[in-house]
Amino acid sequence: MPDLPKKKVGIVSCSGEELAEGTVTRLATRKVLDQLRSEATVPICLPLFMAGGQGDRAFAKFYPTIAVDGCELRCAARGTEKYSGKPAASIMVRDVIAENGFKQPEGRCHLNEAGVQAVDATADKIASIVDELLGKHWNRRAGAFDDIGLAVPIPDKGNKAKKVAPCSCGSGIPVQEVQINGQEVKLIALPLIFEDFRQEGKKPSAATAMELLEIVRVYNRIPQGEDEKYREVLFSEYAFFCDKEANQ
Amino acid sequence: MPGKKTFIKFVIVPCSGIGKTFGSVSREAAYIITEDLRQDDTQLVALAKLVMGEASAVETVSGNPTITIDGCKLACASKMVRESGGNIMQEFDVLDVYRRYKELRPDGIAELNENGVKLAQALAEEAAVTIDKLKVDTKVGQNA
Amino acid sequence: MSEFLEILVDKFMFKVATDRLYSAEGLWLKSEGNRVRIGVSDFFQQHNGDVAFAEIKAVGKEVTANSEVATIETMKVNVELPLPISGKVVEVNPVLSTAPEAINLDPYGTGWLAVIEANDWNAEKTHLLEPLSYFKKMKEDAEREINR
Questions:
Q1: How far apart, in whole angstroms, are the C-alpha atoms of residue A79 and residue A76?
Q2: Nearest Cβ partner for C104 among B21, B73, B98
Q3: Which domain holds residue C114?
Q4: Residue A53 distance to chain B (closest CA, Å)
Q5: CATH number for the domain harbouring residue C66
Q6: Alpha-carbon dihedral sign for residues A101, A103, A105, A111
Q7: Could you read off the pLDDT of A178-207 as tens digits, one per residue?
Q8: Global pTM?
Q9: Deepest in the core among A5, A89, B23, C30, taking most CB within 10 A?
């Protein structure tokens, strides 16, 4: 898998307007973003997922996310999974309230004391999960954590181990545009994936194209029924990439 | 009147975007409308429920005239209401309203500053006027 | 080269159009014969936020190099944009008076700011950044900003 930039955690809040618990999720999330773990967290906008926010969807594919929901509908958790990837953790405010024995929060616009307590407790819980996630390696293919203590990429079997280091700080993820079915399609991390494959000595071939497709699928949505077309394009783009590298 | 539908209440759907102050203004304005200014004529539907296709939320927006309040031009609330089969009677864009009240520059997301609250109030009041005008035409308030 | 250079930094996707030149401040300049169309880059509009007002120097106004050609007022900041070349404003985007959000929605297309009749484009464009150079600078700026 490509080395990725400095790891952060995305927080998806339901911000449900109809219940006080929805306001609790919003304020708890902002407290984590603004105060408790400001450098390690990023807000992910749930409505933007649906409206096609590419950046938010892409982020949620690359990095672990915490869904924070007000009620059992779990819109944030289900929405994240539907439009991007399964969240690494899911918190429901009603559970936090029950665990702590708080009274029922009231006030959708301005929370009562019980609501403020719930905000603080939920924010603390989010923060502790953020800490836990940053100490783990999120396996995007598996949609689960690898059981190792450090945030390092797993070396490929039989190959020289990739450099074992924390994710590089500060470098963005390149995006490459390709033509598929006459349409321009943006594939996130494609240049990094190609570079990885090239460094592993994988030559352009049908088998390599199949492998490329599976890795590309981890970071990008491949429409149903279009595997073959994507494979063909990845084959030719990778061949072009290798050729260009060889001639440099 | 033959052929004229009657509805229960106007549905208010704010975007509540969590990344920008305008999202908080949209949320605050929605509460002012539904809890203070036009409590009897309006109901709030959570955008997250529409995003997930929650049945009762979809039924509510598709069966009642809707007013959306969006924090930016991505217009998530309006998009989702349309996707849910809703009939948008008026779309409010907080940025457009801000242009009419330039002195009320909002700030803060978790907590709006004073100008942000005033901007939300101004938007809510514009929405209330809209609701009053639309009520006459759509017979809101009568049983469906 | 493809139409855009793109990168994802955190959850923000930034694009740089490859058919024009750039100033370090994020203004793009696209030659159209003896005229130059100008606008702001995708990074500029994302970094500075939703545009509430855009004031461009009036048609007919002469602008000397590095003096202000436009003021963009967003929710976060008021930005005065210097024009890196000298010339006369011959056209101002009429859309911006009623819908300045075009700058955010389509910074490289319908969100253009003005057209300038350049005094000496061939000489002055040498001070501008090629797309790849601007892309690298933008990437550094974006990462620095987001990881602050």
A1: 5
A2: B73
A3: 20-127
A4: 9
A5: 2.40.50.100
A6: negative
A7: 999 888 888 888 888 898 899 889 999 999
A8: 0.78
A9: B23
